[in-house]
Structure formats: C-alpha cells, structure tokens
Specification:
Blueprint: H1 16-23, H2 28-35, H3 39-45, E1 50-54, E2 69-74, E3 91-95, H4 101-109, E4 117-123, H5 125-137, E5 146-151, E6 172-178, H6 183-189, E7 195-200, E8 219-224, E9 244-250, H7 256-270, E10 276-284, H8 289-296, E11 306-309, E12 314-318, E13 338-344, E14 347-353, H9 357-378, H10 392-404, H11 410-428, H12 437-448, H13 450-461, E15 466-468, H14 475-479, H15 487-494, H16 501-505, E16 516-518
Parallel strand pairs: 1-2, 2-3, 3-4, 4-5, 5-6, 6-7, 7-8, 8-9, 9-10
Antiparallel strand pairs: 10-12, 11-12, 13-14, 15-16
Pfam families: F-box
Transmembrane segments: 369-391
InterPro entries: F-box-like_dom_sf, F-box_dom, LRR_dom_sf
Length: 519
C-alpha cells in the first residue's frame, strides 16, 4: 500500500525550500516512497539528514547514502547494520538484546567523531564497564554530550579510577541502576556534568566519606529504592550549585515529616542556588494533610507538597500529583484480615484483627522516637549556644505519658516534647520565662518521674531545676520573671529555628498558665 496520497501532484508546484522543510518531518519509509516518484524528489531527499527507526527487515539502509543517516534507533536484531559506514551519525539508541557480537565490539572501539547522544538498554556488566571508561576518556566519542545506560545489574561492575581528558564532554548522564558505594566514580569519571539522572537501588550508606564533589552539576534527578532519612540526603553536599532537583523515594515506615525536615536543612545548608524542586515520596504511615501543612513551612520550595492518601496507610507526598498513584511499585498491600479466637470470661469469641497490628504499633512508636532523635542531631547541629537534649529513656517515657495519660495525639505529643527541649535550652542559656500550656504539660509529666527528672536536672543544670507554679504566696518570685518578652520570642532571639509556634500560642484554658521556674 502506497504512503503517498492521491493528491501528491500538488507537491510538484512547491519550491525546493518548502519541500525540504516537508521532507525533514517524514520517516524513512515515507521518504523511500517519495524517492520513487520522480528525480526531483529523489535529488532533494538525497540532501537530507535521515533518522532511522529500525523495527523490522523492511527498514533498509540501502535507499540512502550512509552519510545522510544522523540518527538510528534499533528495536530489533538488524545484523546488516555496520557502524563503520555511519560516519556522520549523531544519535544512537540501541538495545543490547538485539546487538550482534560484531556490533558490540564496534560500539566500544570505533571512532564516532560526531556522535552526540548514545543510549543503550539492557546492558550487561562487561559492556557497561567499557562504555563508561570509553566515554570518560573521550577518545572514541569526542563530541558525546548525552549518555544513557540501562544496566541489567550494577553489582559486578569493576570500576577503577581513571584519568579523564579534555575530550570528555559528557554533560548529561542517565543511569537506571547504580550503587551508593560507587557514586563517587561517576562524579570522578564525568567532572563536567550539568545533568544527572540516577536510580540508587541498594541500601544507603553514610555519605560523609564521599568527597568527590561536582560544581558543574545544576540538575539532579534521583530515585531512591530504599531511602534512609538519616543518610540519603547528605549527598547534596557534593552538589553545591544545584538549580533543579527531583526526588523519587521510598522511605518505608519512616515518617515523611522526619524526611522533609532533614531534607530542608540539607538543602538550605548545601544548595543555596536551588530554584526548582519536585518530589514523589512514598511511605506507609498514618500521616495526613496536617503533616503536609507542617512540611510546607520548612522550606520555601516545599509549598506545593501535598499528602496523597492510598489504601490503608499508604501515602505519597508529591508536588505535581493530585491523586495517589494506585498500583505503584512501593505500595504495601495489607494481608486480609483474619478472625482469630480470643478468650473472655464468657468463653471463646472471634475478633477481627490483623496479625501485624502489634508490629505496626511498634513501628509507629519506633518512628516517633527516631523523629525526636533526628531533631536532636540535625536541627541544632550548627548552633553556637548550649543545647539541652533529653535522654532516650526520657523521650520514650514522655511520648507514652502524654499520649496515654494526657490524651494528646501522637503529633501533639511529639511537638510538645520538642518544644520542651527548646524551653530547657532557653533555661540552660539563662533565659527565664514561662512555658506554654502544652510545654507545661510535658514539663509536669517529666517532673512526675522524680528519679528520672532529678538525674536529668543534675546532668544538664548541675542542680535541681524547680518548677514555680503561680499562687498568692510567691508573687515576689513570679515578678522576677521578665514577661515583657515572651519565652517564644526569647528563644527565637537566642537562635533556635523551626519552632512550632502553635505549641507556644495555643490556649487550652480560658485563664493562661503563669507557671515559670526558679533557682
């Protein structure tokens, strides 16, 4: 069946300039049909740059001069394809599955001086090694700008540090599978990168040992299959000039709030020029849109983040999606609820219960503890003032006490504990003042555990830190407290950042508390 419409004769009246413009937008099969019509069309087409998409044996190079071919996309085994004849090739999209042994040898040994883009899918480790080394040296591909590698596995890659040359002009690198421990090799192999897209498919390592930075890198897209909020984000100290960042990650049962608080600190510290931010963070927690509101306050680029709710506790925190993407690879499918027997005083009855309920409760509780510990390590890490940190045992006790006895929500309990530490830090730095009602509840709970509180006071203050409730007999002591400036404002002036002002301003009762401290 001919590809040429019946009214093709109308094209004859067009000037050559317009015909060239028309022909440049046609595929190679259609061009071959036009070649057969007349000598004029054939002559014009012989001057064009041709892009070939090889899909079956009917796609034949013989109809064109090899120097015309500037782009080849090979989607099946085409044994007659000889890269030696493609002296003007600029873009190659190949699949290792369909390549012959001779073609594999050619792609690593031939000089392709005009090749600007190389993409190969389903690569085995041995070819991946050779392509990386060859591209880094820049000898065979001196014009290469874009390198895209689809590796079947990166486990067996044997990479050795190599000296790069001035011929290495790779600016964009896209790799579908890589390891944390080998990240520095890429930055060393390709020192002039401005765009990097990478998928890290193993468990993260501490990146403090990674020292090979890339000052030329301005755009970074990363997928983290196993994201640890306490290690994953230190990678950004290697990329101080980032302008655009896109993150897709699975943080499992870790709290998204923990991840974004740390990410905000890393971005503020390491990437001051960042202008564009996109994310797609998957987790399995009971967080909701209220968490999204809190997250949006931590960084100006987080203002588009939304909490998308899936089945059960599947969540996605994303910037450019409106609904949860069901069926994604990170979605956790709960086991069907089974009825199991339990005893009561009347005999045996069956209760609907998930076998993993106890495990999920433990994971939630553990996540709470990690959240508070995380804030210990990162929110105050660069402060110049003396910081008070609650011990792990104190944290666990307060979190349980506030939820079970003071009936606080999990989020309110965590925020109250964090602000209690801020309050203690202010006292440690000679700031006298009154706590808010929520902070005061946490302080009361701490004091009730007398042995624990005494140990805490002696360790952090060298004395017992007294609580001063307001009553008619202590007016003189109460007047010593400088309440012209609120404790919240004093702590801000001290330099404490990212405070939860709601905890300090929310009034639980009509008559606000006047509790303070005394020596």
């Amino acid at each position: 069946m001919s590809f040429i419409p019946s009214n093709q004769c109308r094209l004859e009246i067009l000037p050559n300039e317009l015909l060239i413009e028309v022909f440049q937008h046609l595929n190679c099969r259609t061009l071959r049909e036009f070649q057969r019509l007349n000598q004029r069309f054939k002559s014009i087409i012989s001057c064009l740059n041709v892009c070939f998409v090889l899909q079956d044996e009917s796609d034949d190079f013989n109809a064109f001069n090899p120097t015309q071919i500037v782009r080849v996309e090979m989607n099946f085994c085409y044994q007659s394809l000889n890269f030696q004849h493609l002296s003007n090739i600029r873009s190659l999209s190949l699949d290792y599955t369909y390549m012959t042994k001779e073609q594999i040898i050619q792609i690593t040994q031939l000089d392709m001086f005009h090749l600007e883009r190389l993409s190969i899918e389903n690569i085995m480790s041995n070819l991946g090694e050779r392509l990386l080394h060859t591209s880094a040296q820049g000898e065979h591909f001196p014009s290469l700008r874009i390198l895209q590698l689809g590796l079947n596995t990166s486990d067996q890659l044997q990479l050795l540090p190599k000296r790069t040359t001035s011929n290495n002009r790779v600016r964009c690198l896209i790799i579908n599978r890589w390891k944390w421990s080998r990240l520095h090799f890429l930055l060393e192999f390709f020192p002039h990168l401005s765009w990097l897209e990478i998928n890290l498919d193993d468990n993260p390592i501490s990146t403090m040992n990674l020292t090979q930075s890339s000052h030329s890198l301005t755009r970074f897209k990363i997928t983290l299959e196993h994201c640890d909020p306490y290690h994953s984000d230190r990678i950004f100290h290697l990329m101080p000039n980032l302008i655009q960042l896109c993150i897709r990650a699975n943080i499992g049962t870790n709290l998204a709030l923990v991840y974004f608080v740390k990410l905000a600190k890393c971005l503020s510290s390491y990437t001051p020029n960042l202008q564009y931010f996109d994310c797609e963070i998957y987790c399995y927690t009971d967080e909701n849109e209220n968490t999204g509101e809190v997250i949006r306050k931590y960084h100006q680029l987080f203002k588009q983040i939304r909490c998308l709710r899936g089945e059960h506790q599947n969540r996605c925190f994303a910037t450019d999606m409106q609904t949860y993407p069901y069926g994604n690879q990170y979605e956790i499918i709960r086991k069907p609820v089974t009825k199991r027997p339990s005893l009561n005083k009347y005999g045996i009855h069956y209760s609907d219960s998930d076998d993993n309920d106890d495990d999920m409760f433990f994971l939630k509780f553990l996540a709470d503890m990690l959240f508070i510990l995380f804030l210990h390590l990162f929110i105050f890490c660069s402060s110049a003032f003396d910081i008070v940190q609650l011990a792990d045992e104190d944290l666990r006790y307060l979190n349980e006490r506030l939820q079970l006895h003071d009936h606080m929500s999990r989020e309110d309990a965590l925020n109250s504990i964090i602000e209690l530490e801020h309050f203690y830090t202010g006292l440690k730095n000679d700031l006298n003042g009154s706590p808010s009602e929520m902070v005061d509840k946490a302080w009361h709970a701490h004091i009730l555990n007398t042995k624990m509180y005494f140990r805490f006071s002696e360790l952090n203050f060298g004395r017992y830190l007294h609580h001063l409730p307001f009553w008619s007999g202590n007016q003189d002591e109460a007047e010593e407290l400088n309440e012209d400036i609120s404790m919240l404002d004093k702590l801000k002036i001290l330099g404490i950042q990212n405070m939860n002002e709601t905890v300090w301003t929310l009034q639980l009762h009509e008559t606000p508390s006047s509790d303070g401290i005394t020596n």
